[in-house]
Amino acid sequence: MTGGQREQAAAELEAASDALRAASTLLDAGLVRDAVSRLYYAIFHAARAALLARDRHAKTHSGQVTVFEATFEREPLRGQLLRLRIDADYGAAPLPKTGSELRELLDEAAVFVERCRGLVDVEIAKGVKDPDPPPDL
Prior knowledge:
This protein has five helices and no strands. It is mostly helical. It is elongated.
């Protein structure tokens, strides 16, 4: 993991934590649709951080899912939150989840974020790699 990747992964993890806090605040305020969007983006940013730690990249949301699953494992929570986010952002019908069910998803998302934080920490502990080592003289 290079120094730049470490910094970018840290920024992604901060964005994930911010999104979790925002989701909780929005749920408290009864703004369920906005909370769902923040939940999705919490795990999106956490997954991006984990991929950066392994020097893996994707250009699109769907590409990130593919690369994440190939690198780590399938994450059903992500698909569930993506479907809810699409319903919340684009649909007019009531969401199929209650506030208490969304609180459970918030807890699951927090666990996912911490798991990704742990993956990043392991890679950081291995040390910073120089992306372009100087030639031997």
